[in-house]
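Follow-up to my post from last week.
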Amino acid sequence: SYYVFTFSVGYSTVALNHIIDFKEKKQEIIKPVSPAELFPSLPFVQGTSKRIRVLSRLTLVVSDPSHCNLLRSTSANIRFYDIIAVFPKTEKLFHIACTTLDVDLVCINVTEKLPFYFRRPPVNMAIDRGIYFELLYTPAIKDSTMRRYTISNAISLMQICKGKNIVISSAAERPLELRGPYDVANLGLLFGLSESDAKAAVSTNCRATTLHGETRKSACGVVYTVKKPRKVEEEEATLPACKRAKTQA
Amino acid sequence: ARPGGSMEPPAVPAATFERRVVRSGAEHHYLRVRLELPDGGARPSVAQFKQLVVSALRELHGEVGAALPVDVLTYEEKSLSAILRVISSGLVKLWSALTLLGFYQNRRCAFRVLQTSPFLLALSGNSRELVLD
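User reply:
Got it. Predicted complex:
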């Protein structure tokens, strides 16, 4: 079946994507189908004895700031998804997604010419926050015009973010549209990444995204302690009284 | 004058070795690939396979890419697997062209790169297909 084939190519974790497009009539976010219902037993990862992990992922196609309200509401089914991605269509939404929205991935459009240019401030803020930019490679397999758009959009993204925080993923609908991890890392070289960045785009950054999703689901606050410096008080005490008055004045 | 005198070290004979630094590695890279054609149509022959590889290079990298010296060393029509040889500087171009190939004569297909190595001998053993009893 489809998933057995996927895993024979060499992946150990897969995320199933549900796309919600707000332009159409009222869409409701349904609970993701749990993997146990889809297939009874998951195949093993090639070469190890662990089973595949199947995660669920939600992609929101936003073209209006009011669509982002869904992310702030806590009663929707959105918290059942492991990874949340947003697909901004305008520059303002891209800025909002990078700076304030609580998502794990920002999808970069590869099927058409970008309507806006990337600017450095929101991209740097997204990198600091731990948000990753996602590029798709399956449209490039289907059509040659898409190939050009994919490569040109990817190169313009690389120039701004210098290869950090990139994730390359497939939007495959058929098993034949999937490519092995090393093939995808090679595509990263085409987009202008360095070799280590390209391999990280398929392995390390993806794992960081799943961890980011887990922390988003679980963490409510962080407590940390800071050691207070004590040396300053002792130095003041040794100064004689007349000198102390002069320094304070 | 320094106390203790200065002792000259004994004269060292001139070195008789020569150091050569090779940074480019091997000249050619070898790839073992398999073409997946799920529909049970006619299988390509060797010439058609080579033409498919060259056309994939042309689609992605243009005429300069299509002019890349690629050789098909072996080809098995039954399993559609082949060993390709390419100049090391052209490995990224060839590999990306094979990855992004989607259609062969309007039939959906996919290239799976099984092994790649700068040495041909390394392609003979594949640890991924190792079966441990």
